[in-house]
Amino acid sequence: MIVDPLVLLAFIPAALALNLTPGADMMFCLGQGLRSGARPALAASAGISVGAFFHAGLAGLGLSALIAAMPGAFDVIRWAGVAYLLFLAWQSLRQGALSSSATAAPALRAFREGLLVNLTNPKVILFVLAFVPQFVDPARGALLLQFLIFGAVLALGGFVINGLVGVFAGGIGRKLTGSPVFARWLGRVSAGIFAGLAVRLALLERV
């Protein structure tokens, strides 16, 4: 086998523990659920997972290490992510929460938002470079395939956990948006989450 089964068994609980740790992806799905409902939140979680799998592939090709070593490229990705999160915050304030079908984000758009948020988060690059190589065995060859296998495990676990958070938030949002006042406040809360993630990314320091 390309990956030692015992190593894979050790990787799965470690990956799940990391997926369960509250972070930017989980908070984004929380905000998406409050803003647009359960289905878009699941789509956003799927987009994030595809992004995580893509990052694992880049790491296997060595491109992530190259980007992490280039301050200019790292900062371009980081500030693009900050700008996009601020745009989502502004959009949430403008539209409010799930007060009508017109404000609910289509699943495809939510998927795209989750994907872009993940791809423009350089912290994911650093995380994949620090975590996944600990389980990769060069003696087994096919390094890219090993990275993709571990990336798939991370992506699947993240999809389930972040998706559940988004569905839970979407259920709360639907119960509260019968009132225009609550709808406005939920829009502000989700905008605050996106803005907070933007600030967090802006203050990210390379290590």
Key structural traits:
single chain; 207 residues; mainly alpha; 9 helices; globular
Description:
This protein is an all-alpha fold and 207 residues long. The protein has one domain (23-202). It has nine helices and no strands. Helix 5 (71-95) runs antiparallel to helix 6 (107-119) and helix 5 runs antiparallel to helix 9. The longest helix is centred in the last third of the chain and has 34 residues, at 143-176.
List the helices and strands and how they pair.
Elements lengths: L4 H16 L3 H13 L1 H24 L1 H6 L2 H25 L11 H13 L2 H10 L11 H34 L3 H23 L5
Helix pairs in contact: 1-8, 2-3, 2-6, 2-8, 2-9, 3-6, 3-7, 3-8, 5-6, 5-9
Query: How big is the Rg?
Result: 18 Å
What is the end-to-end distance? 34 Å
**Strand segment tally:** 0
Number of domains: 1
Shape: globular
Give the percentage of residues in beta strands: under 5%
What's the overall average pLDDT, rounded? 83
* Element-by-element helix/strand order: HHHHHHHHH
Major sheet summary line:
none
Category from helices, strands and their pairing:
mainly alpha
What is the tally of helical segments?
9
Which stretches of 5+ consecutive residues score pLDDT under 50? Answer: 97-104
